[in-house]
Design brief:
With 165 residues, this protein is of the alpha+beta class. It has a 3-stranded antiparallel β-sheet with strand order 1-7-4. It has a two-stranded antiparallel ribbon with strand order 2-3. Strands 5-6 form a two-stranded antiparallel ribbon. Helix 2 packs antiparallel against helix 3. The termini are far apart.
């Protein structure tokens, strides 16, 4: 089954893609982690995710922040709530590694790649069961997600007077 992406890169020849479907990792944590690396260079995003896993930096939680603890490290993002979602970081690092391999295969300059598009969608819930008091059985669901990622080479800056000459 051919998968479609929600967007196409402006210059498809200068970009590469990777996606993960039905990943068994928290949707909300992955959403916030992906939002944090959007717009970063590939190397910077990998360094950032590794720093989050070592608790040297935190992921700011801007949308799904109910019950999220406060972290001093979140101050530099202008908010005060953040977490260290290690599993989400592991999954996103694997995707970044995959997109880097795709870029090498395509002959792109890996050092100039930027996370141009990253999107996290809810996937079908994983169903398990939990046993309750008085013989009850209730659902125990996992909130899975789909992630799609497009990295593009950073366009070279054009000098201000170059176009109007």
């Amino acid at each position: 089954v051919k998968s479609t992406y929600s967007r196409e890169a402006p210059v498809p020849v200068k970009s590469c893609k990777a996606r993960g479907d039905d990943l068994r990792v928290s949707f909300k944590n992955t959403f916030e982690t992906a939002a944090a690396i959007r717009g970063m260079t590939l190397k910077h995003a990998q360094d950032y995710l590794n720093a989050v896993m070592e608790h040297k930096e935190c992921v700011p939680f801007r949308r799904f922040y109910g019950g999220v603890g406060r972290k001093a490290q979140a101050k530099k993002y202008g908010i005060n709530q953040g977490r260290y979602p290690e599993k989400s970081c592991r999954f996103l690092l694997n995707l970044l590694k995959n997109v880097e391999a795709n870029a090498d295969n395509k002959g792109l300059d890996v050092s100039s790649l930027v996370v141009w598009h990253i999107q996290v969608n809810r996937a079908m819930k994983g169903r398990r069961r939990t046993y309750k008091a008085h013989g009850g059985i209730k659902p125990y669901l996992s909130q899975n997600c789909h992630v799609e990622l497009i990295c593009a080479e950073k366009p070279e800056a054009v000098p201000k007077g170059a176009l109007g000459a």
